[in-house]
């Protein structure tokens, strides 16, 4: 009998050992994370550094790109698990994948500002009437956001202002530098770059604050985190841990400008000197759950009303918004 009990106990102990090994193997699986250069990825740099130095519970394989077009196919094919992307692109991915993508959290609010060179003649939206605005982002969210805010403030985007669209922010900065007076719509960190190059450049309108002032339940959102639904369902605890560490990383970046800026440069997003000045104006946040869902639904509705294609043809269903386990 003692031999039988001993044998049974041995089997049980071996089973526990193997079960433990299996659990550790699951926890040790790397999260394949993708990010874009710019504010979209600034909030994650502390987590990336901690993971690289084995100081985080999350194990991360990070891929950086200058273009979302390089990363989104990898997410859809299963080569990436989580991706930081423009908010409307999350909706497009959801619609183009039959709901295989979910939105985890907002990680960046608006990063677009109206700036003026040559005196401050613009103190509100009505002061833009009859003016020329240099900008980038035609046919995408910057144009839709500008049109929306102009309309909400009583201006017709077609007749009350002239927008000269450029292909990239550097062109806008060069255009402003060549003129005695000019008005432009620029994203961070290019506002910071332009301020260092152009004397007398002033920020006259913060589009995020202007959107917030409308007090209609939506927010101006630049980007957020999306996840493959299959990954979220298979690794809920691992995902929960990642999100907790990601949130802590965004808080660190906002509260430790100098050290965080060095990490922003380390991960080849922008130079540390630029990052240190730009981060306070990049609206790096972490918003999840019901607050995220409310803000996103309002924002996507605005884009949909401007152009349904901007969100993938239709507004995402409720299953687009990750609720956690």
UniProtKB/TrEMBL annotation:
Keywords annotated in UniProt: Signal
Protein name listed in UniProt: ABC transporter substrate-binding protein
Pfam families named among the record's database cross-references: NMT1_2
Source superkingdom: Bacteria
Span of the signal peptide: 1-19
Organism this protein belongs to: Qiania dongpingensis
